[in-house]
Amino acid sequence: MASSGLLLLLGCLASALLAGATKVHHHEFIVQETPVKRLCEEHNIITVNGQFPGPTLEVREGDTLVVNVVNQAQYNVTIHWHGIRQFRTGWADGPEFVTQCPIKPGGSYKYRFTIEGQEGTLWWHAHSSWLRATVYGALIIRPREDKPYPFDKPSREVPILLGEWWNANPVEVIREAQRTGGAPNVSDAFTVNGQPGDLYNCSRQDTTAISVKPGETALLRFINSALNHELFVSIASHKMTVVGVDASYTKPFVTSVLMIAPGQTTDVLVTMDQAPTRYYIAARGYVTTQGVAFDNTTTTAVLEYDCGCTTDFGPSIPPAFPTLPAFNDTGAATAFAAGIKSPRKVEIPSPVDENLFFTVGLGLFNCAPGQLCAGPNNNTRFTASMNNVSFVFPKATSLLHAHYYDMPGVYTTDFPANPPVQFDYTAQNVSQSLWQPIPATKLYKLRFGSVVQVVLQDTSIVTPENHPIHLHGYDFYILAEGFGNYDAEKDAAKFNLENPPQRNTVAVPVNGWAVIRFRADNPGVWLMHCHLDVHITWGLAMAFLVEDGYGELQSLEAPPVDLPMC
């Protein structure tokens, strides 16, 4: 009896260990040209494995992903695992010429990294030119098998990727804009899981449909994978309970509308408590620029109740349509952001070692003599900057490679901690002497373990705008947001030091500011940039160089043997 009891105990222990065991997931991504039909026209687009959107990767916290990316397309490509912390594995982060050289046509590269301390919804996308218009997919991180969700387990989970579609080749769209110095052509449609929806020509038959059962609760994992538009989202007749953003759980709050910026994710629980029929999920742009063209269309998917009854509500009965905010409803965007909080009191990194103040905004470069440009007044080119530095990406090597091998002449570490010139950042008429930034490859060096606080301040140069700022390699706490010019004495009193939200992308309010804080505990070179792709193309970016700490576990790993060369 004693021996059988011991065997039973050992069996239980083994089962417990297996339940909490981590796995290594192997995938192959073939980047290739694929024919698709959208908006009545045939197109050849760049995809992964012929899928648009690309494959959904599903893992558990603690698992390791090994993804072999094979480039069979005609363009250079890299893949970024958006929001993954990449502890010591910066070589797998993916931004072109920052942590790696691109994978050239015919080449391949194996991304290998472990997901540590993150649960929820993230995503992956191309980080070269504008390829991410069609090269993207969901990355779902569930809790370990022995750990439940911090909410009742949903009946079903559905990733919903919001995208942006051009009838033209997106790479050619941005190349033409770079050639002329003007703004790129706006998109022709938004999409839900790759489909524009009922309101666009030749699209109704392929509208994304999500089947649900009356009374059940579904977890909808929204991802804004659009290139250049923040989006309002609503579901007809249904409330949404937000339970997570950017792979961090939130204090649940109920809302009828979401505002999701490019790069951000939002997890919501929706209970199917309405009459068993069909309801639209709809998304349209939230636009804060003035006098600038934008995509003013609305994408839809259909929530279809499967009641098992004989009623045929079919296509003859149109789905109910939700109420969406006006495209410029900053009040709705502000109210939604204010509702997002951590689920409990958090230990905020302190005291602050680095107090930084970064302006973010647009600008203009003068054209070369004799050149006719497409910017304002025909003699300027659009640009963008942080602290008056328009970021220039290297071309002959990556920043991380140059840092690791101590290569001179690739970058400098004198990115300014504060604006070189202080001015009324949100004034209606900023002096045009401040409109032309300096093009440079400047990094800001951080000591390992230092606590960093950054004020992100929008400017009204050219036009004020809500800028979604994404930091690679880190999550951060958003301590406060506000409008006007940040005032350290007055606005520090607004800091949420109890339960601020944790994110990897913050939507800096139009004509306003946001304050973020994080601990620099991940060595490497980490890009911070606007996730409106037109703005990063123009130079709205910078990078932190986080030094190694002490010992192997606080140091960047050696580069992989198959790291692409430039």
From TrEMBL:
Cofactor note: Binds 4 Cu cations per monomer.
UniProt name for this protein: Laccase
Reactions accelerated catalytically: 4 hydroquinone + O2 = 4 benzosemiquinone + 2 H2O
Swiss-Prot/TrEMBL keywords: Apoplast, Copper, Lignin degradation, Metal-binding, Oxidoreductase, Repeat, Secreted, Signal
Record-linked CDD domains: CuRO_1_LCC_plant, CuRO_2_LCC_plant, CuRO_3_LCC_plant
Function: Lignin degradation and detoxification of lignin-derived products.
Domain (Plastocyanin-like) ranges: 31-145, 157-307, 414-548
Signal peptide: 1-21
EC numbers, comma separated: 1.10.3.2
Cofactor: Cu cation
Biological process according to GO: lignin catabolic process
Organism: Triticum urartu
Family: Belongs to the multicopper oxidase family.
GO CC annotation: apoplast
Enzyme class: oxidoreductase
Subcellular location as annotated: Secreted, Extracellular space, Apoplast
Superkingdom: Eukaryota
GO MF terms held by the record: copper ion binding; hydroquinone:oxygen oxidoreductase activity
InterPro entries in UniProt: Cu-oxidase-like_N (IPR011707), Cu-oxidase_2nd (IPR001117), Cu-oxidase_C (IPR011706), Cu-oxidase_fam (IPR045087), Cu_oxidase_CS (IPR033138), Cu_oxidase_Cu_BS (IPR002355), Cupredoxin (IPR008972), CuRO_1_LCC (IPR034288)
